[in-house]
Specification:
By secondary structure, the protein is mostly helical. It has three domains: about 1-105, Alpha Horseshoe (Serine Threonine Protein Phosphatase 5, Tetratricopeptide repeat); about 120-175, no CATH class; about 185-300, Tetratricopeptide repeat domain (Serine Threonine Protein Phosphatase 5, Tetratricopeptide repeat, Alpha Horseshoe). The protein is built from 16 helices and no strands. The protein has helices at about 1-35, 40-50, 55-70, 75-85, 90-105, 105-120, 125-135, 140-150, 155-175, 185-195, 200-210, 215-225, 230-245, 250-260, 265-280, 285-300. About 30% of the residues are buried.
């Protein structure tokens, strides 16, 4: 009986070790496939892990991340909610839940989750400000910025958000009307040099882009960004010019900054995604190019 009992115990240990090894093999394969952007393949490996351990938080987390990369928002939210049901206070899970909600433009719910994160990590107030702006809770954003400035924790990004809010108020209080329909670029540039009005430089860039003067578009949009760092249109035009000039990595860097300032404007967001798609296509990163092209198409379809 002792022999049989020992044998059964040893057999059980061997099976557990074998399952543990299989789990690790599939899990690391999933991480590898995700790293090279083979998200479908990563999910296949995660399904193998899930068969062995259906309550593993790391597996559920990776399921959600890969589904989000594939724009499968239902799956992404389903798996992150399962993970949070097991570890409701996990900072990384909460942070990812915000990303899933933002991708669906559900800023109201994202704000509630971000508030929980801020309670644990006050440095994440910056993201809460941005969510307030995206949800058009402008007074809440202003109040939080004021508190951050009082506590000397305002960042460069916060300063840009403050500039955005101040300019928004100025535009509301004093709308700028410019008759530019039949005005040539040189006249517009003289007017801009004198007044430094955003709407003037916007018209200049539109005309230059239509004439395919992309060196000029790049130079003028770059200069304008120093005065209007919160205007997403300028980042978009700068990125477009860089793409047309063959500077694809630089375009991605500029577009990545500018898209943060796109607030409740799906057409502008789609324009950014189209430029991202062009950059990645030219860099021969097909999976990223397709991803951004699909995001742009989805937004265009909504409108």
């Amino acid at each position: 009986m002792i022999f049989i009992s020992s044998f059964s115990y040893a057999q059980k240990i061997n099976i557990e070790e074998e399952l543990s090894l299989k789990f690790q093999t599939h899990f690391f394969e999933a991480l590898k496939q995700k790293a090279i952007k083979n998200y479908d393949k990563a999910i296949e490996s995660l399904e193998m892990c899930n068969e062995i351990d259906s309550l593993n938080v790391s597996v559920l987390f990776e399921f959600s991340k890969n589904n989000l990369e594939l724009n499968n928002y239902f799956g992404a939210e389903l798996f992150i909610d399962k993970a949070l049901s097991l570890e409701p206070e996990n900072y990384y899970l909460l942070h990812h839940k915000v990303a899933v909600l933002k991708a669906q433009r559900n800023f109201e719910k994202a704000i509630e989750i971000q508030k929980k994160i801020v309670q644990k990590q006050p440095k994440n107030n910056e993201e809460l400000v941005f969510l307030y702006i995206q949800n058009q809770n402008f007074s809440e954003a202003e109040d939080l910025i004021a508190k951050m400035e009082e506590n000397a924790i305002a960042t460069l990004r916060i300063k840009s958000f403050k500039s955005f809010l101040e300019n928004r108020k100025a535009i509301q209080e004093k709308p700028i009307e410019i008759a530019t329909e039949n005005t040539d670029v040189e006249t517009l540039k003289k007017s801009y040099a004198k007044n430094k009005e955003y709407k003037i430089v916007q018209k200049i860039l539109d005309i230059e882009a239509e004439a395919e003067l992309f060196e000029q578009v790049y130079a003028d949009s770059k200069e304008a960004l120093e005065l209007f760092p919160e205007q997403p249109y300028l980042y978009k035009m700068n990125g477009l010019a860089l793409n047309r000039l063959g500077k694809y990595n630089e375009a991605i860097a500029v577009l990545s900054i500018g898209i943060d300032f796109v607030i409740d404007n799906s057409k502008m967001e789609a324009d950014f995604y189209e430029q991202f798609s062009i950059s990645y296509e030219k860099l021969n990163n097909k999976s990223e190019a397709v991803k951004y092209k699909q995001r742009a198409a989805a937004l265009r379809k909504e409108n």
